[in-house]
Amino acid sequence: MEKKVLRKQTQQLLKQVDEATYNKHSHAIHERFLAMQALQQARVVGLTISAFPEVETRALIEQLWALGKKVAIPRCKPATHEMDFYIFSDYNELETVYMELLEPIPAQTVYVTPQGIDLLVVPGVVFDKTGYRIGYGGGYYDRYLPHYSGQTIAFCFEEQMVAKVPKDTYDYPIDCILTELEAINCQQIRKEEQHG
Prior knowledge:
The chain is α/β, with parallel strands linked by helices and about 200 residues long. It is about 30% helix and about 25% strand. It has a single domain (about 5-195), classed as Rossmann fold (3-Layer(aba) Sandwich). Strand 2 and strand 3 (about 80-90) form a beta hairpin. The longest helix has 16 residues, at about 20-35.
């Protein structure tokens, strides 16, 4: 099945999730993330500010700040489909851009290089256990990930998991996926598949 069809089907599935389930499952994923050793060691965490039905991140950002972590979010450049991350410490430092997305205001936030982010939460619509994903179609992370060498994590609900994601040569797999039910070590699964 091609990426566009899988993306659309999964997005329709997610829209049917009721608010109580959405909040409960998001909370379970937050708990799993906060317990990770990689997070405890990280100083700067890169992620996006969620919009329903993505796994909720606003409450998580508050928790990360409370733990003394720095949170960096992306600012997209639609003309080139590239993005830069900026550390923000208050929602007043953000502005609403296209599609109601919140992005950092560069003059009020701190630019951080890919090397400056310790842990990057990569968004997506569809995932498989080897860590391959179907994003939102903009290619922003496909362009960013080749420059990033830290650990990558994805949050997703069980509805977003499929047996196999069709992959292209430019796709970068994620190291670890957290769902409401489990933590999936994608690196380990890829190794096992290679050695069969």
